[in-house]
Amino acid sequence: MSRRSETIGKFRLSQVTEFILRSLTADPQLQLILFVIFLIIYAVTLLGNAGMIVLIWISPQLHTPMYFFLTHLSIMDICCSSAITPQFLCHLLKEKKVISFAGCFTQIYFYGALSTTECSLLAVMAYDRYVAICHPLLYLVTMSQIKCVQLVVVSYTAGFVHGLVHIIPASQLFFCGPNIIKNFFCEGPALLQVACSDISLNYLLIFIFMGFNILATILAILTSYTYVLITVLKMHSAKAQRKAFSTCASHLMVITIFYGCGTFVYAQPGKSHYTNQIASMLYVIVTPMLNPLIYSLRNQEVKVAFRKILEKKVAFLCYTKHRIPLELQRHI
């Protein structure tokens, strides 16, 4: 264990300069199998979310507030996964899973900030569905381009300020050992368990700010979809009801997975070390992969936009294939 010695009066303390992360297994062969599995998951996460961003960008029919927010949700999924997964993959190939003091705090900050931003974006998307279904005539006015940009800026600001609120007090803590974090990545609560200082302030900040963020976003989501449900049930046309439900189904599924996995990770204090790591993996690594799959498989507008792009590409390739021989014949 790497330490930096400091002398305080007659006492000699050793400050931790790196942390050791726990691994799921000590079996090298199983670690190699896990490396391949999670490398595939990470690749699918990057390709799926990047593909969703590009599809929305090049498809005029998807230039609406809902897909503007979905673009930023995909960006959050890419960033959140990239803050954890590459380092986790490297550790699967190493015998000693070590992360530096600065690296650990950087990981904690970005993971917390990005997760909070994603919570805010999910709440904003719920509000967008409320306006679209409950007040369709005012939708373009209420969800103007400026309003959408403002909501996204507020979401990002809330996330990164929330990260600072926790990381600044945590960086003032003293760590004298042991330096083993009981998770596969640097997580705030797991880091606090190995601190030698008083952590009551840190837990108080987590309770206040994280609790407020979760309650505020869940309340916004539940309120929005309660009004949506009431409005849909009042519709006389079954076709209109199906269309309204279909526009909300993908978002509701993403919300359920995000908050369901998060609750499973953080709301069970009696979990074993192994169970906690499995739950964290589902929440941190697997969930970002599912979001673009859900929106692409269950959203009719995304399917239509993707089909049009494919048709254009096929038509272009067919045109090019038949055009080249004619041009060659002319040169000959």
UniProtKB/TrEMBL annotation:
It is found in: Cell membrane; Membrane. GO terms for molecular function: G protein-coupled receptor activity; olfactory receptor activity. The chain crosses the membrane at residues 32-58, 148-168, 203-232, 244-266, 278-297. Residues 48-295 form the G-protein coupled receptors family 1 profile domain. It is a multi-pass membrane protein. The keyword Transmembrane applies. Pfam families: 7tm_4. GO terms for cellular component: plasma membrane. Keywords: Cell membrane, G-protein coupled receptor, Membrane, Olfaction, Receptor, Sensory transduction, Transducer, Transmembrane, Transmembrane helix. The keyword Membrane applies. Belongs to the G-protein coupled receptor 1 family. This is Olfactory receptor. It comes from Naja naja (Indian cobra).
